[in-house]
Amino acid sequence: MKKWFLLALLPVMLAALLLSPLAGSQSPDRAPVPKEVRDREGRILLRTEKRYRLYYLGQLPLPEGLRSLVRRKEALNGSPPYLLAEDLSGEEVRRYGSLDGVILEEYVASRLIAGPAFAPLLRKPLLAGLTRESRIQLTLAWEVQEKLYDLLKRAYKGSGRLSAGVVDLVSGEVYALASLPEGQENLLLKGLYPAGRDLLGPEVFGEKTGIELPESPGVYWPSGDILATPLQMARALAHKFCGRAPRIHLVKETLPAVLCRSQGEKAGKSYTYDDGRKWVRLELWPEKEPRFVLILAGEATRGPSRKALAGVFQALAHWLPEEDPPPGPGKGFPDLRGLTLRAALERLPREGLQIDFKGVGRVVRQWPLPGTPWEKVKACRLYLGDAT
């Protein structure tokens, strides 16, 4: 009797031995990523977590405690081990892991918290060269990235390519970088367009922009004509207007403050190229004292007019600071992030301000930005959620 029992148990023991080395392994279909990626204000965009797959090694029918895990009938085809569930959290593992016949496989998976606007930058291994760092803070501004992505989706007609970005004119920090359709190369990094002679300058072209993503180097003809990416053109426009070209970057770093010394009205605040098939537009903003450059590029789609460009900046203006917010408490609109809804409402005036909120928990995002002068504030929007 004992001999037959051991023979029946042998397949289960072999399956356990085969699966056990997988515990703690990296999921084969995922590229390594940092433990955390945050936006410019420290809010988590992506988090790497331990996840689990659950196998059942026993005989059917399933114990009652495991039946709720089965999502597909095909999971019970064949012979054990049966893969009942994957992407389980630690809490779910504690609930099911002690049941008889259960074995768990641990792996590492990245969880995109920020949403589809950030997926092309964070879900794919574009930041693979930075994975040695456990935590990375990017220059991306959550609200600007989401808004620019939404504007791109509205403009996209289902064919061709569209790409857009917002870059700080002086520091080179990328506030937003988006492209459609997903899965294709971003034109701001890979598209090549003729650089007008009014942009040419040996101080700018002929070197990389500095961004931590793969980019085209450009093409230089003996005649002096140059094909450059829109990001390289943005550096050239910044050099033309400010007298210096910033190193464009996506990873937040501490840099000394440098003023943009305008080269005068003749310097120009825009650049346009359009051959009917390919186009690129660059525009500085705000108009009086520019701080940002908006970059739009497309292929096989019609380029935007100056009026449409102005509309894009108008839509982004709520999220782009015209100047650095004043330091210290009590100056401008308060920083409400991290507060409960009740605590946030107590810091706001009860009359003359329209207040909207979405979600539950603590304030994780807000509009307007902290430090916005009160005379510009007519409405307030709070986003609540998991601040961790």
Structure report:
- It is a single chain.
- This protein is α+β, with helices and mostly antiparallel strands.
- The protein folds into three domains: 2-30 and 49-110, no CATH class; 139-316, Beta-lactamase, CATH 3.40.710.10; 341-385, no CATH class.
- 20% of the residues lie in helices and 26% in strands.
- The protein contains eight helices and 17 strands.
- It has helices at residues 2-19, 90-96, 119-122, 142-155, 187-190, 230-242, 306-316, 341-346; strands at 25-26, 36-38, 44-56, 82-88, 102-112, 135-137, 161-168, 174-180, 193-194, 219-220, 226-228, 270-274, 278-285, 292-299, 354-358, 362-367, 379-385.
- The strands form four sheets. Strands 1, 2, 3, 4, 5 and 6 form a six-stranded mixed sheet that branches. The protein has a five-stranded antiparallel sheet with strand order 8-7-14-13-12, with helices on both faces.
- Strand 7 (161-168) and strand 8 form a beta hairpin.
- The relative contact order is 0.10.
- The model is unreliable at 1-31 and 324-329 (pLDDT under 50).
